[in-house]
Structure formats: structure tokens, C-alpha cells
Amino acid sequence: MTYIKRINDNANKPGTTAEDKSAAAFMQLLAHELRNPMAALINLAALIKAREQAGKPVGNLADQLQEEVWRLSSSIDKVLHFFTAGNDIATYKMEYLDIRQVLNKALARYPVAVNSRFLVHQAENEKGIGKGRGKGKKKAPFIIGDAEKLEEMLGYILDNAVKYSPPESPVHIAWRQTGRQVILSIRDHGIGVPRKERQRVFDCFFRAENARRHDQHGMGLSLYFCRRIVTAHGGRIKVSGRPPWREVLNKLLPRQRRYSSGNAVTVITVSLPLASPVAS
After folding, report:
1. DSSP state at residue 217
2. pLDDT at 36
3. Is 102 exposed, middle or buried (CB count within 10 Å of its CB: 0-12, 13-18, 19+)?
4. Is the distance from CB of 68 to CB of 37 less than 8 angstroms?
5. Pick the residue with more confidence: 263 or 114?
6. What is the pLDDT of residue 139?
7. pTM recorded for the entire structure
8. At residue 46, does pLDDT exceed 70?
9. Which of 132, 211, 223, 235 is the most exposed place for a label (fewest CB within 10 A)?
10. C-alpha distances in angstroms, 229 versus 90, 146, 152, 235, 236?
């Protein structure tokens, strides 16, 4: 913290450069982003130790500890990504990928308590679910991309969905093929994004007004990184308040699995160009 204070003090001196002010702002954001999970880890570790010494059951404290470790790891990943974002596109390892496998790996990173909130669906393609051209064969949704970067992109979106929505609410992940692209839709029942700010949420360090009022801290980097990654793959990303295709969740979800609350709905839609799979 002494290092951060020194940066902030230097930023307030006369003749400070724009780079120094940017560094100070970033360090302030970083301090806020890391302080909460670190404090939670310390408190949870103390509680677990106290219960073990008293011979009492730990209960779900271990699960909570795992979630906070995951949260801290996610914040550190964002910082590392920020410092390499200037030249990372040149390092992408492009290969043929099945988007379903990329999605499964992204989901596998989460603790069980968080993962249980994710509901994955395949929506109908334009001519039925997975139907081939007149032969009824299913086409695998292959794209050309960097698996690790795409997993990161999905992780950033899912992190936000979890962070800004009630802990009991589901996060719906739907995908479909249409034309020469695959569309991924992540929908949560959280605080929403004001319509007037939906374009700006992809700007570096920008946080929507309602997100700034929320208890959860953030650096305004997640969706900035997402747009960089999606753009590098020739795709598009946008924020809206409804699924990209009409009534998709009503068709896919049994009535008892639907979720209703007074909260807003946020839908992040990612469109990526399809590629023909490598011939065997």
C-alpha cells in the first residue's frame, strides 16, 4: 500500500504526465479490486482454524474459501492481461476448435457452488437443431480461434454474471448456429446495464453507474478484454436486455427451471464466424 500511496502522491504534483495519472488511477482500482477477496480469505481462514480447534464442523466455509480464491485468481488474471493487452493479438495460437469444448473448459474453471448456477442450452438453428443440409446430420460448431483466449473471454462474461446477480439465480448460456456464424448468449438476472451505457461498457476502465453503486468492486476491464478477444477472432459482441432470438429460453426451459425476480436482465451476445472442420 505504501507503493500505491507514493504513486498517488506523485500523480497530484504539478507537471504530472497523463501516464502518471493513468498509473495512479489504475493502482487505485487494483487496490480496491484485490482488497475485498484478500480480506475475505483471511477471515475465512481464521474461522476454519477456530472451528477446527474447537472441534466444530467446518460446514460450507471450505466452499466459501474456494470461491474467494477463485475470485482473487480472476482479479490477478485481469491485471496480467491488462499489461500484455498491447501486443497479445500477435501471440494468438489459431486452430480449429469446437466451440462446445471451449465452453465446457471455461465452465470447468468454476467451483462447484458457482458452476451449479450455469444452465447450458442449444437453441434451434435456422433449420432445426444441428440439422445438416437435407441429410439430417449434425454439424459441429467449428471456428478458428485461440482456445485459451476464448476461454478467458467467456470467463470474464460469466464472472460478471455471477458477481452482479443474486446467488440463487441461474445464469443461462445458450448457443446456436446461424448462417456462417455461431452465436453465444449469456443471460443473467442481476442489476442490468442502463440502455444509455451499453456501448460504453466495452471501454477500458468504464463501469456503468449502477455497477459503481453495487457492493462488488470492479476495474472496468472485463468487457474491454472481451471486445479485444472477440474482435481478434473476426467476431462481434454486444449487450442487450433480451436474448438474441425470440423466446429462446421459454422454449428451452421446463417451467420449473425458469427464474423470475424483480431484477433486470443482462444478455451478452457473442457472434463468431464458423469454419469448416479439418478433413479427416
Report:
1. -
2. 67
3. buried
4. yes
5. 114
6. 62
7. 0.69
8. yes
9. 132
10. 12, 9, 9, 9, 10
